[in-house]
Amino acid sequence: MLLYLDDGPRVIIVASFGGHSDHPEWWKNLLAEPSCRIWSAKRGAESMVASELEGDEREALWERLISMYSPYAGYQEKTTRRIPLVALSPAE
Questions:
Q1: Helices (H), 1-92
Q2: CA 58 → CA 13, 42, 65, distances in Å?
């Protein structure tokens, strides 16, 4: 179970792992195979494709995510790794 941010047709999720020094296993799995299926009560079941956000887009969404769930900022302070933001976009 993950918190997520609706971003139009995309879903944005955070590979924070609570600030742990390693990436969560689900992110490693998505790096190996970006196709996935998600389910939420609001959106239902969807086939998606994962990609890591970078640059200005990442920074803007990071601020939105911290506003939504402030502990993310503390998680980033706990670790030396840059916490990935993951965009799940509808599969074609």
A1: 25-32, 55-68, 71-78
A2: 11, 24, 10
